[in-house]
Specification:
Blueprint lengths: L25 H12 L8 E5 L5 H8 L4 E6 L2 H14 L3 E5 L2 H7 L4 E6 L7 H13 L3 E12 L10 E7 L2 E7 L2
Parallel strand pairs: 1-2, 1-4, 2-3, 4-5
Antiparallel strand pairs: 5-7, 6-7
GO molecular function: 16S rRNA (guanine(966)-N(2))-methyltransferase activity; nucleic acid binding
EC number: 2.1.1.171
Pfam family, one: Cons_hypoth95
Amino acid sequence: MRIISGIYKSRKIVAPKNLPVRPTTDMAKESLFNILNNLFYFDEISVLDLFAGTGNISYEFVSRGTQNITCVDQDYGCIKFINQTAEAFEMPINTIKSDVFKFLEKSSLQTDVIFADPPYNFSEEQFSKIPELVFKNNMLLENGILIIEHSKHTDLSNLNHYNYSKSYGGNIFSFFEIA
């Protein structure tokens, strides 16, 4: 994977092959950040990266100036890799090793952007639990957004707080906002 833009532009980050991840493609990531670039000043926001995996999305936020990023993943190898990469590049990324749903149930963290990239084979019930917990626990700051990445075979448009989706190849980003 590579960082698309910002101070770490073009840096390649190679994750260990044994991590249970499916990193967001460069094309989809670039398209997502083109949308976000029109909504936020990256140096003024906070980000929560759920199902963080390799930290791919978080590195892109840091490269563009975001200084307050929290990554949550239940896999020790993923958290270890994110910590090692953040340390090597001197990136301000906090990590939490936790089941994402348990974290969402207990957390009082509020951020401007919550990005969730759960396994594509999640059930509709598992997908719906993400926005349900985020909005129930008021985890978004004013004008904040929740973005859930999923496959084209999953439709989240019937969930509460759904606003719109953008499709990039087999990747879909669904955007949720406070009504």
